[in-house]
Amino acid sequence: MRYVLAVITMILLCGCVGDNGVKIICDESFKCPLEDIESSGINVKEEMAQSFSCIRRAGEQDIVIVSDYNLLTLLYPDKTNYYIKFAADSIVIAYSKSLNEKWYEMKDVKIGIMNPNTSACGYQTLMVLKLAENYYGDDSILYNFICKNTKIRDEETIVVPENLEVNGNVIVETSFSDLVNDLE
Fold first, then answer.
1. Which of 1, 24, 68, 160 has the fewest CB atoms inside 10 Å of its own CB, making it the most exposed?
2. Which is nearest to 30 in space by CA: 178, 176, 181?
3. For 135-173, how does the pLDDT look when each residue is reduced to its tens digit (9 = 90+)?
């Protein structure tokens, strides 16, 4: 609900509700809140894309909404006069307490991530796995889950090549709905 109120407020403050409605390009994670806005009577023409695509296409739309607000700084001041951080999300690692072994030591685990080259959630997932290494004192978590099954490398920084060459139990998608379907 707070997303809906925040986006409605942005629309009204921007003054972009005209006869043709308001054009919004946003990250797929905002699909449900935008459906709620459409039911409020505001004429919204939305397009879903990954965060980086939204940034590249800014200027064609009235409003750009992305998951990583830091990307919006790339638009300032050439393509926008201001930007608003209006929400915060979390990424978690979920597992069953009934496991007899540690989640990061389990064999044959299937893991799905969004493409780190196009999605904020993708590169944030890599950072979460890297932070898990610190938390659990195990320097092999990112390698075991991602690097040994893709071309992603864990060096001084995490290197994500254009061609990930995915194999094994890793699924990389550019669409959140495709990722969920692949993991089910």
1. 1
2. 176
3. 999 999 999 999 999 999 998 889 999 888 888 788 888
Cβ-proximal residues to 35 (8 Å cutoff; 6+ apart), any chain: none
Cβ within 8 Å of residue 43, ≥6 positions away: 17, 20, 21, 22
d(CA 116, CA 114): 6
Contact between 98 and 82 under an 8 Å Cβ cutoff? The reply is no
Whole-number Å distance between alpha carbons of 92 and 74? 27
Helices 31-38, 2-14: inter-axial angle, 10-degree rounding: 60
Q: pLDDT digits over 174-183, tens only?
A: 777 777 788 7
How far are the Cα atoms of 21, 70, 86 from residue 61, in angstroms, in the given order? 11, 19, 19
Taking the C-alpha atoms of residue 176 and residue 29, their distance in angstroms, rounded to an integer, is: 8
Q: Class assignment of domain 103-183?
A: alpha beta
The span from the CA of 103 to the CA of 136, in Å, is 11
